[in-house]
Design brief:
The chain contains 10 helices and 8 strands. It has 227 residues and is α/β, with parallel strands linked by helices. The chain folds into 2 domains: 126 residues, Endonuclease III, domain 1; 86 residues, Ribonuclease H-like superfamily/Ribonuclease H (Nucleotidyltransferase, domain 5), CATH 3.30.420.10. 18% of the residues are buried.
């Protein structure tokens, strides 16, 4: 309770220092001037403290979450508050830091301040892991040499799929991918047998034309290998 009262006093002092004119306008007229930068926040005055208005009056959350207290940017108290939350939540990143602060406070330009606090934190800089980037291999000639559509293609299966009609029927899908243009052709396959695959391949050739190269991942299906 004492910490809450002390925080309330510090927020009030910071607002008196930076928002004195806005506080006077809200106290007298109940609203802020059009040229004020707090106008978009539809500010309200509660116990001498400016809070964010909004449409969360009936939300099942605390009053601080519905109407967070407005804090000025580039103020020592605001900067200390952001640093405190950064350490309290175990050196949270900018997004988590902003989300947790907005549960009670609404600092102006919080995004820039959160990034500044995270980047200037010595612990975060010291223990930040470096993500290794593995270099990809060179593309084979069939991937980079121009050719007609589906002249060279890759093949893979996906499934099984079950029909939504009368009786469930297990089936698979053959996916033909052009190695040059990444175009995709899909054919339904009844099972994993060689005959079903050849039937799907014939339908593909009848639609797309003859092939020069077929590449696959050497499927480990027992039925396909046995055939």
């Amino acid at each position: 309770m004492e910490i809450k009262k002390a925080t309330h006093c510090l927020v009030k002092l910071a607002q008196d220092e930076r928002f004195s004119q806005d506080l006077a306008e809200v106290a007298c007229n109940g609203q802020i001037k059009q040229n004020s930068r707090l106008k978009t926040l539809t500010s309200i005055l509660t116990n001498g403290v400016l809070r964010v208005g909004g449409r969360l009056r009936y939300a099942p959350v605390s009053y601080d979450q519905r109407h967070p207290m407005i804090l000025p940017d580039k103020h020592p108290f605001t900067e200390l508050l952001v640093v405190h939350y950064h350490r309290k939540f175990l050196h949270a990143g900018p997004q988590l830091l902003i989300a947790t602060i907005h549960e009670r406070f609404w600092p102006l330009r919080i995004r820039n301040l959160a990034r500044q606090v995270v980047h200037s934190c010595v612990s975060c800089f010291r223990y930040k892991p470096k993500i290794l980037q593995q270099l990809m291999g060179e593309l084979p000639p069939e991937r980079v040499t121009p050719a007609f559509l589906f002249l060279r293609m890759g093949l893979d299966y996906c499934g099984p799929r079950q029909s939504r009609r009368a009786a469930p029927v297990e089936c698979f899908v053959a996916i033909f991918v052009c190695l040059v243009t990444k175009a995709v052709h899909i054919e339904c396959v009844g099972d994993l047998s060689t005959n079903s695959f050849l039937a799907a391949l014939k339908r593909f050739v009848a639609r797309r034309g003859k092939l020069e190269l077929i590449e696959c991942d050497n499927a480990t299906s027992k039925e396909l290998n046995a055939s």
